[in-house]
């Protein structure tokens, strides 16, 4: 049986491979005491560095967990000198992250969610980066969202959650106490159950949950991240956050969320016919029917189909599912054309979008930018996922040609260590490369890696890496044009899928993960939260941007994407190294050793 609808069993074998393995890497770090107070009294918001505070008791339990979503756990590096240099230059200071009041289930202000007929991207508010939230203008505040905004709504009558990891102590603290219909779709072994000593109100909520448990094979993930909310006024709303449901993941790396408009219940047959022709609806239904739990899928699909999806016309709901999860619907219910998913479906949708564009000048340079939190290292038929499969499929070319340029926005080791939360922000970024091996060697040679322009980042967040995944394409006359264009891009995909074979598959192999995303056709304008929020505040500007202090009006939200990184990007320098968890582990261990040596010296002096 591929899954079940019941209370999840604590599967030790599966849990060890998916949760404990990564939690052990970080369990010595006290998430409640690390981080950095970035609200400086002098508006300079200068970061003060001090020694890393690490847990002394190695027998203490886990806090939050860190996701494994790269293709391989192999790889080696010899960067001892770099590690020691970074440890000496950049270690996080100790300031406390605000403790959540788990019993605080009162109504929250839902002032960050869009007007009823709009949809757009939101930045997930962080208790580390956004300590000055109350001093911001209403326009600036409108770009934020929290899990409380999504779940602690008295109008919310039912919710369905799809994710890879759940920390139930954190998640249930975000819910309205009266919510009585909660469904959680989860991978076996990837849930941290509610603590026995949690408040009674949370145990009441926990007892109402229906768990849809998916038994995934090794090295595959139920990596989708989606929330389907149904309200007492018969409307529904879709949220696609970049985060799993753990507090550390929401706090330390940057996270965003796509919010749909409110989708009203169908009122007449003509509206129903129009809604049923919307690609987004049909693709969403097709995805849900990939789950093997027949009762769950049919009930959810019937509920979804009672709503008008006309406001999402033109958008595509793209997804990946493993081949073993076949459609469970009848022929009469079948939506879509086949069992395709992943890269093949992505390329097909892109080709349909680009048919509408006028013929481009052949001399123009084509750019594909991917911002990702993990990079797979599998080589299939001597080809890497990005340059050997994805770009040829999307561009409809046989090979990676001279006028086609790929760029991967991926955090450097120094960016992670210099971010306000330092090492804490890097635990979700996986690229197990070897300096002398493929695919890293050829990717470095082709100058594929780009990073955030240091002078374009905000003082509050600096170059904190983002756990989001954006894929976009544009054309220009300059082959060296690595920054996001000022005018528009041809299309943009926001997704849970990292740059890996597991997430996408190829034209020859199937994806092995569950993934979901939103493909937005162009021409579409790209904005940055750096400009809209942080550089709109007097005294916090770094560099210049034409979007500084911009306001996104209601009539452009459907043709705009907002990203958490600055639009100005630069190539890696010669000393830049992509970050990865293994290297950060060694830096952490070096920091612990240096701290222990410092403590020993102090002890001997007493």
Automatic annotation (TrEMBL):
Q: Which GO terms describe its molecular function?
A: 3'-tyrosyl-DNA phosphodiesterase activity; double-stranded DNA binding; exonuclease activity; single-stranded DNA binding
Q: Which InterPro entries match?
A: Tdp1
Where are the residues marked Interaction with DNA as a site?
A: 500
- Biased composition, Acidic residues: where in the chain? 62-72
**Which GO biological process categories is it annotated with?**
DNA repair
Subcellular localization(s) per the UniProt record: Nucleus
**Record-annotated residues binding substrate?**
225, 469
Q: Does the keyword Nucleus apply?
A: yes
- One Pfam family assigned to this protein is Tyr-DNA_phospho
Q: Where is this region: Disordered?
A: 1-21, 45-82
UniProt entry keywords in alphabetical sequence: DNA damage, DNA repair, Exonuclease, Hydrolase, Nuclease, Nucleus
Record's GO cellular component terms: nucleus
Where is the catalytic site? 223 (nucleophile), 467 (proton donor/acceptor)
Q: Output the superkingdom of the source species.
A: Eukaryota
Q: Which family does it belong to?
A: Belongs to the tyrosyl-DNA phosphodiesterase family.
Protein name per UniProt:
Similar to Saccharomyces cerevisiae YBR223C TDP1 Tyrosyl-DNA Phosphodiesterase I
């Amino acid at each position: 049986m591929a899954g079940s609808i019941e209370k999840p069993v604590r599967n030790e074998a599966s849990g060890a491979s998916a949760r404990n393995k990564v939690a052990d890497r970080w369990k010595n770090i006290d998430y409640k005491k690390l981080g950095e107070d970035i609200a400086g009294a002098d508006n300079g918001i200068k970061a003060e560095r001090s020694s890393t505070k690490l847990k002394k008791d190695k027998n203490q339990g886990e806090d939050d967990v860190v996701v494994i979503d790269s293709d391989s756990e192999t790889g080696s590096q010899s960067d001892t000198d770099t590690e020691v240099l970074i440890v000496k230059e950049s270690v996080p200071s100790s300031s406390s992250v605000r403790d959540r009041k788990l019993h605080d289930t009162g109504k929250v202000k839902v002032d960050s969610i869009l007007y009823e007929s709009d949809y757009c991207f939101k930045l997930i508010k962080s208790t580390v980066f956004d300590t000055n939230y109350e001093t911001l203008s209403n326009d600036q505040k409108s770009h934020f969202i929290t899990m409380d905004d999504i779940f602690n709504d008295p109008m919310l009558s039912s919710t369905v959650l799809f994710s890879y990891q759940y920390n139930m102590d954190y998640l249930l603290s975000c819910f309205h106490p009266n919510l009585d219909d909660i469904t959680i779709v989860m991978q076996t072994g990837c849930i941290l159950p509610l603590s026995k000593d949690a408040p009674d109100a949370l145990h009441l909520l926990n007892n109402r949950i229906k768990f849809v448990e998916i038994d995934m094979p090794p090295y595959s993930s139920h990596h989708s991240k989606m929330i389907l909310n149904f309200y007492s006024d018969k409307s529904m709303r879709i949220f696609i956050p970049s985060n799993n449901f753990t507090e550390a993941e929401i706090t330390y790396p940057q996270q965003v969320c796509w919010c749909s408009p409110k989708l009203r219940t169908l009122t007449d047959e003509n509206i129903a016919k129009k809604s049923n022709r919307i690609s987004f609806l049909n693709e969403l239904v097709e995805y849900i029917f990939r789950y093997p739990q027949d009762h769950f899928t049919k009930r959810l699909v019937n509920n979804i189909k009672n709503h008008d999806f006309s406001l999402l016309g033109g958008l595509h709901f793209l997804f990946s599912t493993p081949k073993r999860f076949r459609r469970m619907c009848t022929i009469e219910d079948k939506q879509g054309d086949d069992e395709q998913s992943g890269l093949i479906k992505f390329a097909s949708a892109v080709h349909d979008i680009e048919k509408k564009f006028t013929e481009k000048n052949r001399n123009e340079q084509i750019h594909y930018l991917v911002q990702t939190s993990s990079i797979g290292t599998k080589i299939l038929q001597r080809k890497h996922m990005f340059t050997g499969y994805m770009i040829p499929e999307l561009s409809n070319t046989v090979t990676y040609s001279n006028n086609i340029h790929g760029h991967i926005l991926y955090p450097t080791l120094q960016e992670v260590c210099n971010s306000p939360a330092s090492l804490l922000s890097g635990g979700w970024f996986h690229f197990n490369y070897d300096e002398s091996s493929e695919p890293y060697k050829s990717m470095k040679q082709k100058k594929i890696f780009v990073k955030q322009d240091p002078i374009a980042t905000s003082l509050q967040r600096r170059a904190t890496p983002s756990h989001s995944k954006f894929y976009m394409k544009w054309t220009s006359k300059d082959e060296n044009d690595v920054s996001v264009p000022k005018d528009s891009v041809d299309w943009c995909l926001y997704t849970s899928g990292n740059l890996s074979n597991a997430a996408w598959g190829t034209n020859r192999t199937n994806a092995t993960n569950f993934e979901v995303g939103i493909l937005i056709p162009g021409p579409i304008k790209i904005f940055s939260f750096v400009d809209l929020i942080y550089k709109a505040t007097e005294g916090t500007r770094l560099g210049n941007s034409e979007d500084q202090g911009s306001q996104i009006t209601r009539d452009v939200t459907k043709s705009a994407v907002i990203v958490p990184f600055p639009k100005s990007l630069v190539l890696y320098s010669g000393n830049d190294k992509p970050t990865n968890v293994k290297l950060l582990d060694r830096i952490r261990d070096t920091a612990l050793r240096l701290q222990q040596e410092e403590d020993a010296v102090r002890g001997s002096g007493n």
